Amino acid sequence: MLEKKVFRQQQLTKLAAQKEATKEAAQHLLAKLVQTSAWKNARSIGVTLAGEIEVPTEALIQKAYAEGKKVAFPRTLPKRQMIFLEALTEADLERSSFGVLEPKYVPERIVSNLDLMIVPGIAFALDTHYRVGFGGGYYDRYLKDFPGNKIALVAPAMAYPTATWAVEAFDIPIDQLITL
């Protein structure tokens, strides 16, 4: 069992080498996602603006808008907290200290009643649904009290039969993993 920090570094290298395959998997994962009852019943969705080694989310976001769903994006806050806000145009976004695009903080755009969370990660255990993220625990803290559905899109390079990393007490399992 690898320490999570060591596993994360190895996995990031693996994902960088597999980023084209991950991009190719995205349309198949989205096709499966939109067939789920969680997607069909969701009126509001939380999703990240994916980085280059993650499953791309642009088509998912466009599909949600086309179906009239409200879409909100994460913004990190001090003390490892996170909120979700609507961002309707590129002007509503800014680059965070982590180098990712986040919505600008506008209190009126906070969305607190999301039905579905598309949870990012770099590795997922298929048996227990535990994940490894980018570190920091933002999603685990947020998901601890999240009442909606939690789904992850898992490209082949991210899928593990079981966790080969140390699962910690504060890790939150994902309700459903969408795989190829």
From TrEMBL:
Q: Name one Pfam family in it.
A: 5-FTHF_cyc-lig
Enumerate the InterPro entries for this protein.
Answer: FTHF_cligase, FTHF_cligase-like_sf, NagB/RpiA_transferase-like
Q: Which reaction does it catalyse?
A: (6S)-5-formyl-5,6,7,8-tetrahydrofolate + ATP = (6R)-5,10-methenyltetrahydrofolate + ADP + phosphate
UniProt keyword annotations, A-Z = ATP-binding, Ligase, Magnesium, Metal-binding, Nucleotide-binding
Entry's EC annotation: 6.3.3.2
Mind listing the GO molecular function terms for this protein? 5-formyltetrahydrofolate cyclo-ligase activity
Q: Which cofactor does it need?
A: Mg(2+)
Query: Does the record carry Ligase as a key word?
Result: yes
- This protein's superkingdom? Bacteria
Keyword Nucleotide-binding among record annotations? yes
**UniProt-listed SUPFAM superfamilies:** NagB/RpiA/CoA transferase-like (SSF100950)
What family is this?
A: Belongs to the 5-formyltetrahydrofolate cyclo-ligase family.
| Cited NCBIfam families | MTHFS_bact
| UniProt protein name | 5-formyltetrahydrofolate cyclo-ligase
The source organism is Ligilactobacillus faecis
Q: What is the lineage of its organism?
A: Bacteria, Bacillati, Bacillota, Bacilli, Lactobacillales
